[in-house]
Write a structure and sequence with these properties.
The protein is α+β, with helices and mostly antiparallel strands. The chain contains seven helices and 13 strands.
Length: 267
């Protein structure tokens, strides 16, 4: 269900909705657009398998859906898509998570009946977004402009995302990503729960405050948490799986295995 945005709030923030059938808005030099498409069909899935060099993909892949944030003046483009996320999964190549029931079944089965899992069927990915710098380039001899691109990099820093600004009572102008009159904020979350075995939470948060339209400052915070059910039980947490339905609730109970904050740098 789409959430209606007050036109007065948009106008007061100096924002406007995108046109040409696109879903998103323009604000402080940013064009922010989300695309919600259907799942990939069989021919497209086959193409993805060939590109990723794998015969294993999730049952449903929303390959044409994406979130794109483009800063027009600087050319910074941050986007999120399923293909790049699966590329990260393929490169990390974690070992498969084995549940106790599967181990028992393997022990009782005859060798020719055993199914050998040689890939991470949880599709855990280190993906935290894609980014490029799009630059207008002049074609030789014709005077026309084309679009080139180069990569951006992130430098580790001691700055922190301003959580207090997110708690303010500003109107939310765009809900697919949290866009407010003074900033935008997004959360990319991978949440895995294998009952009785493992819980894994990988969060990426990005935050941009609208202070400098020419050179925006963007912070990215990555936090990975993980624990086995056995480890949680040893700490006195309930072993009932129903207690872990909400990743936001359980996140504070899971130990941190990686945490870093970075600032976007244009090279």
């Amino acid at each position: 269900m789409e959430v209606e945005v007050d036109e007065k709030d948009l106008k007061a923030a100096g924002a406007e909705m995108l046109t040409d059938g696109r879903h998103g808005l323009r604000i402080h030099g940013w064009e922010i657009e989300s695309r919600k498409r259907s799942i990939l069909n069989s021919p497209n899935l086959q193409q993805w398998e060939e590109k990723l060099q794998t015969s294993h993909l999730p049952e449903m892949v929303f390959g044409e859906s994406s979130l794109v944030l483009k800063h027009v003046n600087s050319g910074i483009k941050i986007h999120f898509n399923a293909f790049d996320a699966l590329t990260g999964w393929k490169q990390e190549a974690l070992p498969p998570v084995e549940v106790p029931a599967a181990a028992k079944w393997k022990f009782r089965s005859k060798p020719f009946q055993q199914v050998i899992l040689d890939y991470d069927y949880t599709f855990t990915t280190p993906y935290c977004g894609s980014q490029t710098l799009e630059i207008e380039q002049e074609k030789h001899g014709r005077g026309e402009e084309s679009l080139g691109s180069c990569t951006l990099c992130w430098e580790e820093c001691n700055e922190k995302i301003d959580v207090a600004s997110l708690a303010s009572k500003e109107p939310i102008l765009f809900y697919d990503e949290r866009v407010m009159p003074t900033c935008w904020f997004l959360l990319l979350r991978f949440w895995l729960r294998v009952d009785g075995v493992l819980m894994r939470l990988r969060d990426t948060r990005m935050h941009c405050i609208f202070k400098d339209d020419a050179n925006p400052i963007i912070l990215r915070e990555s936090c990975w948490r993980e624990a086995t059910f056995q480890a949680l039980s040893a700490k006195g947490y309930p072993s009932d799986s129903a207690a872990y339905n909400d990743p936001s609730t359980i996140s504070q109970r899971l130990p941190i295995i990686m945490h870093k904050t970075q600032k976007l740098k244009v090279e």
